[in-house]
Each structure stands twice: as structure tokens, then as C-alpha cells.
Amino acid sequence: MTFWKTFWASMLGSLVSGLIIIGIFFLILRSIVAGFDAMFEDKKLVVQNDTVLHMELNDPLGDFTTANFDPSTFSLQKQFGLMEILEGIEIAKEDPKIKGIFLHCDNIAGGMASVKEIRDALADFQESGKFIVSYHENYSTSAYYLSSVADELYVFPSGMINWLGLGSELMFVKGALEKLDVEMQVIRGSNNKFKSAVEPLLYTEMSEANREQTEKFINALWDEMVDGVAKSRNMKPAYLNKIADSVLVRQSGDAVDVKMADGTMYYDEVLEIIESKVDSLESTDLNLLSFKKYALKKTKEQRTLEVLDPKNIAVIFAEGEIVDGNGKPGQIGGTSMSEYIRDARQDSTIKAVVLRVNSPGGSALASDIIWREVVLTREAGKPVIVSMGNVAASGGYYISCAADKIYAQPNTITGSIGVFGIIPYTGSMFENKLGVTFDYVSTNEHSVLSLNKKLSEDELLIVQEGVDIIYDDFISKVGEGRNMSKAMVDSIGQGRVWAGSDAIEIGLVDEYGGINDAIDYAAEMAGIGEEDIALQFYPKKKKNDLFEFLENIEEMDNQTSIQQTSQLELQLREMYGYAQSISTQNKYQARLPFLMWIK
After folding, report:
1. Structural domain for 536, as ranges
2. Helix axes 237-245, 208-233, angle to 10 degrees
3. Catalytic residue at 195?
4. Rounded distance, CA 17 to CA 21, Å?
5. pLDDT tens, 406-422?
6. For this structure, is 359 an active site residue?
């Protein structure tokens, strides 16, 4: 008895001591964070006269700026938001201290629709009479598409411009699954021949239907890029295609010869050109300022000034795969997203809603929950306008179809109106690879549904019926929202993917435009004047001292370190995440029909 008294007393003492130590640690950390916050609080962004903004898009592009803490690396996983980029360019256009932009991008981690919105904003910046000069050692295809908007474009003497066209690469894992004795039991909508999300699990190459739709939409994406470059560089689209087909740009000098670049230069020489454009009388030094720092600080200042204004338009970001529940950062949770829309509907000061959709889809159940909230918001008399980003397909289109109006870019990927179910069978793997077997006792014929037990013919028919019911409901809702017959929706559905340029012709999209166009139209429908627009963003940004502390620490380091990861590693990570995602969702999914890399 004495032993146990001593034991439990010691355990309790250790536990209390541990909690005290942890508490002291967090108090100290909180004090440090508060100290840094105070130190940086008064550090205003000083913009000198004749400043040139240095625009580098190194962080992944998202619809809104985020910084999610990764405890495994004790670092922030960040994305630079399109809203802040567009707003930053607009503020710079009106800022008399800003003379121009130095565009310095070699590769862009973002979709082409977002790139087009940035490109259009830069073109508008030029209309104010301010210059844009672009330079880099190497330009990827997407970076060149963006950079070609510049007044002058230069490349490193031994650098390169990648202009070979677009290609689509899909990874198939059927052979790997066979080696592991894993069988995927897949059920698609009865006529969903284009719904090819499951093809990597079933085949070793593309089906003809998938090849057909992929060729069509990547050609549409390429045509949009070619047209944009042709207009900016005063070239003919046919000649730009000839350059790609014949690989006429093999070194930087070739880019100058074919008029895709204005010269080959070193970094210091480009800075001299920029300095000559500024022609400052106050200083002989070139004032370069990080565009990212400028955009984030200026948008924060502007929103701080507006914080007391009653908000009248809700801008709700639906970015990522659609999942049940609240979801994680980078996902659209059916529960959390419906709460955002409901909150906007029930807020009497909010007069209209803009739903920004950037999603390949996911859970059919969560998509339906979100769709219902959109319908209820419209029924409450509040306009709902959808702005599609890089992709708004399958479940992403499901949650969009009930809106009053849908905006998209020509290079938005949308459609994919279809459904599938997937149930892995792992029983053979456990038995043949590990010697593990399973046995069952049940009260009824279908009581045991397990990954280690194959579905019977009857069970497969039940799942097939469920998939077909959801697909029928899907096309019915699209028909209702888009004022189309169910037969018409089915003819353009069946899981088929469309580029925005085609989607507008077949009635899935109403008009070309970006998120600002959607906001302007929402204001018009709600009777709100342009000067009276006040935006409420969802999810609402919460102040996080630790995140700001880490960001401030990063700002103290002027050297930007970009971690290089092999292409193979990136693809394997993405493929694993994709396989994990489609395997852990509920059994019915409305998802973009493939995972691919467009190069």
C-alpha cells in the first residue's frame, strides 16, 4: 500500500511539474512573440519617391494569402493570394511614388487562370503610363506568358525561354497495385465515359475518351496563351506555333532573333535600364521594393482603415478539394463552407455573395450540402455570383451551378459533371504478402462491408444504383440552375472536362472575367455603388501571433532560400496524396477525372 501511495504521489508530482514547465514555456514564448509584435508594430512600410516594385512570384499562388504552420519543420507553408496581388497592383497604379514594376519570374506555382488575371491587371497598370520591365535567367512557359505583357523583356545571355507548347502527362499505377495484390473496385455513372479519375488505377494508358477530352482542353489553354503573347509582342499566332513546332528558340539569342525577347543582358545591365527609366532627380540610387511586401502591407493598411465600415458584399473562398466535415487548410469542408455561406445569408448588412471556386471537386455529399446553402441564399433575396479560378470542375461545378451568374477565364478548367465510387479490396494483399486472413460473422447478408472482403454482385449493383442516382440528381440541379434540359446537361456531362472558352459556348459559364468582375456585378445586382463596396472575406482571417512572429523573423533575412525538390519527388508526393484522398473520401465522389501534370 505504501508503495502505491508513493508511486501515485510521484506520478502526480511529475505530471504537475510537467504541466508547470509547459505553461512556463508557452508564457515565455508568448512574451517573445509579443515583444516581436511590438517591435514590428511601429515599423511602417516606407515607400520612397521613384520606387520600382520588384515582383517575384516564388510562393505558390492561391486565391488568398495564407500561412499554415507545419510542426514537422517548424516553418510556415505559405501561399501568396491572388486578391492581394491584384489589389497590390491596383494600389501601385494609383501610387505616385511607384514608377514601374520589375517583373522577375522564372516559374509560377499556380494555375493559368490566375496567371491571366495577374497578366490583365499588369496590362491595366501599364495603361496608367507606368512601365514594366521583365528579366530572368530562364523562363518557363507560364512565366513567359505572364512576362510577355512587359514593355521590354530581357533574358540572361546563356539563359533560355521554354516555348515548346503544352503537354499532359498522366501517371498510371495499375501495375504497381497488381504487384501488391490490391484490387480497386470502381463504379462510375452508367454513361460517364469521360469520368476518368479512376483510370490510373484501372489502366496502363489513357482511354480514347480521356485522350479526346484532354487534347481538346489543353489545346484551348495553349491557344489562349498564344493569343495573349501574340498581342503583347505584336506577333502572329501562327508564327508562335511555328517557333514551338520547330524549336526555333534553342538559346537566348534565338529568342531575340524571333522577337520573343528584346535583348540578352546580365542582371546589372537590366537594373541600369530600369534606372534610366526612373530618371530620378532626387537620388542616383535605384529604389527597388519587394512587390510582395508592398502588396501585403498596403492591402493590410487599406483593410484596417475599412475595418469599421459595415460590409455589404461577402467574398467566400472555396479553394481545394471538397471533403466532409470542416476539412483541413487547403480543403473545402462541407460543414465549414456551408457555415460561411449561411453566416453571409443571415448577416443583414451583407447584400450579395461572391463565391470564388477553385476546386477539382471531391465528396458528393459535401458538395450537395454547400449547393443547398447557395440555393437558400438566393431564395433569401441575396444575389450569388460565382467566380471560377483555375479549376471549378465536378464537385466544384456542383457548388457553382445554382448561382445567379458564373464568371470564368478562357483557360479555366470546368465541367466534369459526373460521379464515381471506389472501394479498394486489400484482402489478397494481406493474405498473399503478409499471411493475414480474415473471417466474418454477421446478422444479415450485407452487414460486413470491409476493405478485406470483395463486394458481391448484388452489392456492386447497389453501389452502381447509388452512383446513378447521384449523377441523375447532379444533372437535374445543373439543368435547374442553368435553365437547361436534363438531356442537354447529360450530353455535355458524362464526366467531360471543358476549358472555359468551350464552357461559355455550351452554357456552363455566362461570361469571361475574374474575381473583380464578379464583385462589380454583385454590387450592381445589389444596388451598391462602386465607391460604397465593402468586402467581408470568408474564411475570416484570425490574428495569430505565432504566425506573424515567424513571418517577421523571415523578413529579417534578406536572402530568399528556395528549396529545390526533384520533379520525381514532387510527382510521387502528389500521386500519393491523390490516391490517399480518393480512397479516404466517402464512397461517392464528384471529382475532376484525372491527376495530371501540364508541361
Report:
1. 309-427+455-598
2. 120
3. yes
4. 6
5. 999 999 999 999 998 88
6. no
